[in-house]
Design a protein that fits this description.
single chain; 471 residues; alpha/beta; Rossmann fold; seven-stranded parallel beta sheet; 42% helix
Amino acid sequence: MTSVLVVANGPMQRQMAGPSIRCLELSRVLHARGHQVTVALPAPTDLPDQGFPLVVYTADSIVSLARRADVVLVQGYVLRRHPDLAHVHSRIVVDLYDPFPLENLLVFQRAPMERREAEHLESITAIWEQLARGDFFLCSSERQRDFWVGGLTAMNRVNPYTYSEDPTLRNLIDVVPFGIPSVPASSTQRAIRSRVAGVGRDDIVLLWGGGVYNWFDPAILIRAVGRLADRHPRLRLVFMGGAHPEPGINELMWAVPEARRLADELDLTDRFVFFNDTWVPYEARADWLLDADVGVSTHFDHVETRFSFRTRVLDYFWAGLPVICTAGDTIADTVASRELGATVPPEDLDAVVAAIDHMAADRRWRNACSRRVRDFAAALTWETVAEPLVRYCESGVAAADGGWALRGRPFSTIAASLVTPAAMPRSGLRRTLRAAYDRLPLTVRRSRSMRWAVREVRRLRAPRSRPRSRR
């Protein structure tokens, strides 16, 4: 039995978003496999008893909790907020399923450039620190794994030590996708039909599960439903995710008010397009999913799409919903190859209209897609997808390059250490040191240890007084 500490990046409550859901479900799997699991939370929880401790951590207590664990699982900004975690002797597992620096490019896209620079440096520094310290890394797909192997290479974690231990690097980074519960989705009550004013029992419901974030394109769905209103008067588009449960997120998401404004302008609000104002509790989401006919997700064509893993579509799979989604990410490739619904090119309104029209008009095809979805979903349970993490907790070891002094240091910052004064003129060495320093994040350059290092370098560069002659 291994002692595992799972450190959540955000609140873990009945109303929670993807990262906290992932922490909870992975913890449940590890606990069921016999490991001693503790989940550390940044805020109190209202969840019922899970069979393992859910404890609120502080800056002082988190290190103490980590020292008592064999394995510590972190995600997001946890290491950034609590840098002392990097110095515990426990094995650190870093969950990279959410490449948030790419998301933040869109979250802050409309902010002043100074704010965008600061937010990007903060997020990319958080990633650097994780890549430098982690003993084992998780990601959501093989495409994501390629992305993160590139990052690990740049951070000098793909090196003779890690390669010699495992030429495939699976011992360093492996795929643990988002999963679905092994228990089939079941409903306790209707959440949409005859409960949302304007949606009837016989209507065709397109459900947008989860939040409306800036990297999505809800407008194209709203416009498509408007076009089809005369042809399919029973068509309804329902946005399930209202106000985000984490403080500060809603103010950054302009996609929500813009979607509402467009629906108002087209006179579709509460007639064909409906917005839920609250965040649906995690354990209640099946009531919404099973009250829909089709799951939808549309996004723009950008780098976030390329490496994303649309977790809301996993919920559609769990509920047996056929899917209409934009092409370009891993999940969309699966939808297309396994005929689980329809994929459309980004920002192609005619294609979205045609896909919805086909899904609404052809019930036999819709039901056939649903059967294929249910068959495919059986392989996506948390117990199945978490196997690499379970295996690491049972028999994994610290990273093979743990004793190497240059581990986790970008090559730009170690160039100077590979060049001795004898091998390079003093002026060239100064230029190399300066170039390496300029590439460091602003937060690192302003740190106490870096200021001390700069003072030492300047002291060593100062001309020494010559000893007086004894003649």
